[in-house]
Amino acid sequence: MTREIGHFVGGKTVAGTSGRFSDIYNPSTGAVQAKVALAGSDEVGKAVENALAAQAGWAAANPQRRIRVLIEFYNLAMKEIDSLAELMSSEHGKTVPDARGDLQRGIEVVEFAIGAPHLLKGEFTDGAGPGIDMYSMRQPLGVVAGITPFNFPAMIPLWMAAPALACGNAFIMKPSERDPSVPMRLAELFIEAGLPEGVLNVVNGDKEAVDALLHHRDVSALSFVGSTPIAEYVYATGCANGKRIQALGGAKNHLIVMPDADMDQTVDALIGAGYGSAGERCMAVSVAVPVGEQAADALLEKLVPRVESLRIGPSSDADADYGPLVTKQHLDKVRSYVDLGVEEGADLLVDGRGFTMQGYEDGFFLGGCLFDNVKPDMRIYKEEIFGPVLSVVRAKDYEEALELPNAHEFGNGVAIFTRDGDTARDFAHRAQIGMVGINVPIPVPLAYHSFGGWKRSLFGSHNQHGPDAFHFFTKPKTVTARWPSGMKDGAEFVIPTMK
In CATH, what number is assigned to the domain containing residue 351? Predict the structure, then answer.
């Protein structure tokens, strides 16, 4: 009998009641391994109702008590990191070592959120005026929600949940219906760690669940990570319903290769950043920009054989460079982009479309693909492919190379490989991108800095994790206090000043 995954509401797993389900595949074999319930608006409403009832008590707990729950959750998650990684790998398709990294980067945000008592401190001014003191505080929003993508089933849910809970909010998680088992287990671990029932709920679902959260009057804020069209929809709909929204969208991350770059290091960077996790990362490098024909030829001379020799295997193969894509639908989409690139006139130097694996013929595998002579007007350059496909766009000089990411509609991440400090410094200042790497291909900030792009890669004014998370999940309040002994008799009709 196929395993059924429901929801997590009120501190326990509950069955779905909508009658709608979605298949969960084993990407390595192509077989259906489970079904997940898709919540309707009534089920979302019950989760919000539970969260609303539990939030006030959680917010009233002092910050240290809330943090003790996060500390215990950290300990439990670290004990289970290997089993969680295997569970993630079986549904997503990423290799177990890669899944372990996914978990680790999420747990690092939990570590950061343990410092919440310091981050939630307000400010105090003694004697701001005659007999007047002034102070500020940060208070939780109430019930908040997070909608997370399939490609990081642990990292991004924890990026949202840990700061939101540390601030005293109740949190509704809507993970991807493609790989929901790890988020469900994380919710159980939070309860085991001492989180009161109802403070964290998980509703699995599709657009119906998303719309229910966006329109529910008791959801104060919503954090989203996914594609740009949906990010824009979430932002517009949420704002129209009076909610605070942060919505992270798509990417087209460039890596600029200067003529003085160490080509061996550059190729290592491109192989890992372009093809790791089958390219299913919002910070994957999908465009390499060598500066000058000599640099382009030198790069490709080393890059082509490396792409041809990529080791692709089932997600359980710890020695594989990457595993299958998440679903057959996504595999077909990525393969169609490779077909399109050929039609558009790009040179397909390495064609991975014919890759098959003995014993896993029905798995969702695609070999590494490498295009040369890609032009900025081609769709394979303009659109996010989200697969193991790397495009080489040749630039005649540094200025032309810099203009490529600056002119692109996405602005998530960018990198430059060079030995020249002046060039690197100029690039860091002039790149119109949210996250910049200098000889670092995937410049994902650590937990105590904030993650977020520019342009159509981010809708809203707050980034993920770091200090921005504590600003997003709280509202500031300023108190001005004067006691009777400092007050004058009579009404005052002019605006108060510090005169």
Answer: 3.40.309.10
One domain for residues 199 and 311: no
Q: Where in 213-304 does DSSP place strands (E)?
A: 219-225, 244-248, 253-257, 285-290
49-64 pLDDT, tens digit per residue, is 999 999 999 999 999 9
CB atoms within 10 A of CB 71: 15
CB 52 within 8 A of CB 217: no
Torsion of CA 425, 430, 435, 441, to 10 degrees: -60
Whole-number pLDDT of residue 2: 86
495 lies in a domain?
A: no
Dist CA 451 CA 434 (whole Å): 8
CATH number at residue 170: 3.40.605.10
Identify the pLDDT of residue 131.
85
**Does 93 lie in the same domain as 170?**
yes
Report helix, strand or coil for 45.
Answer: helix
Rounded CA-CA distance 418/299 in Å is 13
Helix (H, G, I), strand (E, B) or coil at 118: helix
| Band of pLDDT at residue 486, cut at 50, 70 and 90 | low
Answer yes or no: is 374 within a domain.
yes
User: Catalytic annotation on 167?
Assistant: no
| Inside any domain, residue 490 | no
Q: Are residues 104 and 145 in the same domain?
A: yes
**What is the predicted pLDDT for the residue at 299?**
98
Residues 185 and 313 in one domain: no
Residues 258 and 245 in one domain: no
The per-residue pLDDT of the chain, averaged, comes to 96
| 499 pLDDT higher than 70 | no
Q: What is the pLDDT of residue 452?
A: 95
Same domain, 299 and 229: no
For the segment 437-480, what is each residue's pLDDT rounded down to a tens digit?
Answer: 999 999 999 999 999 999 999 999 999 999 999 999 999 999 99
Assess if residue 489 is contained within a domain. no
Q: Is 329 helix (H, G, I), strand (E, B) or coil?
A: helix
Place of tokens 């399939």: 150
For residue 131, give its domain range.
3-249+457-479
* Distance from C-alpha of 94 to C-alpha of 298, rounded to nearest angstrom: 31
**Residue (of 252, 201, 243) closest to 224 by Cα position:** 243
Task: For residues 181 and 139, state if they share a domain.
Answer: yes
Q: How many domains, the chain?
A: 2
User: What's at 187, amino acid-wise?
Assistant: A
Residues 81, 154, single domain; the answer is: yes
> What does the alpha-carbon distance between residue 312 and residue 305 come to, in Å, rounded to a whole number?
15
Residue 484's pLDDT is what?
74
Where is pLDDT greater, at 174 or 487?
174
Q: Which one, of 144, 82, 415, 448, lies nearest residue 268 by Cα? A: 415
Quick one: what percent of the chain has pLDDT higher than 70?
Answer: 98
60 by Cβ neighbours in 10 Å (0-12 / 13-18 / 19+) ranks as exposed
Planar angle of CA 447, 264, 419, nearest 5 degrees? 70
Per the listing, tokens 């390595």 go with: 28
CA 61 vs. chain centroid, Å, equals: 29
